[in-house]
User: Fold this.
Amino acid sequence: MIAPLEENKRRSSRVFIKLPVLIAGKNTDGQAFRETSETIVVNAHGALLYLQAQVTMETIVLLTNPLTQEEQECRIVFMGNASEKGTRIGVEFLTPAPRFWGVEFPPADWPQKAATA
Assistant:
C-alpha cells in the first residue's frame, strides 16, 4: 500500500479569490500606513495579498474587511516578490477567525480535485 502524499500540510483549505481588504500598520521607517489592497488567496487562518508599504517579517498589521468592517490583527509570515501591484505578503491571524472572509471552506476530507469537477 502506498502512503498518502503529504503535499498539503496546511491547516485549512485555500481559496483563490480577489477580495478587497484594508491593511494598516507601521512600515520599516516606523511611519503609520493605511492602504487598500486585494487578496490573492485566503484561508481560515489568514491570506496572501499585495502590499505597497515596506514592511518586514513578523510585523503586526491590522486587516479590515470593508464589506463587514470586521478587523483582525495579523502577523506577516511570508514575503514574496514585488510587482506593480506591490509585494506579495502572507499574513496569519493572531486569533482564529474562520468567518472573517465570508467564505465557506470545504471540509478537510474533500479531495482538492473534487472541487474542480
